[in-house]
Write a structure and sequence with these properties.
Number of helices: 1
Distance between the termini: 47 Å
Low-confidence stretches: none
Strand content: 15-25%
Shape: globular
Order of helices and strands: EEEEH
Structural class: alpha+beta
Helix content: 10-25%
Number of domains: 1
Number of strands: 4
Strand order of the largest sheet: 1-2-3-4
Oligomer: single chain
Mean pLDDT: 90
């Protein structure tokens, strides 16, 4: 099995199940995530599934998700 590295082709990551948020829209503007065997998470653009994957450790993902829940990134989304 090939080592999973940041920026590798997402379709080269074997044995993972890619999933996206229920909030994703039908036009495919979303990201997909897959849990890796070491507990890390791979992230890819759903419209370019064969493109590169960004690889994050479990701790990095915990910090990001908790920050999102806490509203740390709310200013990135325009409010109409």
């Amino acid at each position: 099995m090939e080592s999973v590295t940041n920026g590798m082709r997402a379709t080269s990551i074997e044995g993972v199940i890619w999933r996206k948020s229920r909030r994703s829209n039908p036009s495919g503007n979303c990201v997909e995530l897959a849990v890796l065997s070491d507990g890390g998470v791979a992230v890819r653009n759903s419209r370019f599934a064969e493109g590169p994957a960004l690889i994050y450790t479990r701790d990095e993902m915990v910090a990001f998700v908790q920050g999102a829940k806490d509203g740390d990134f709310d200013d990135l989304i325009p409010h109409n």
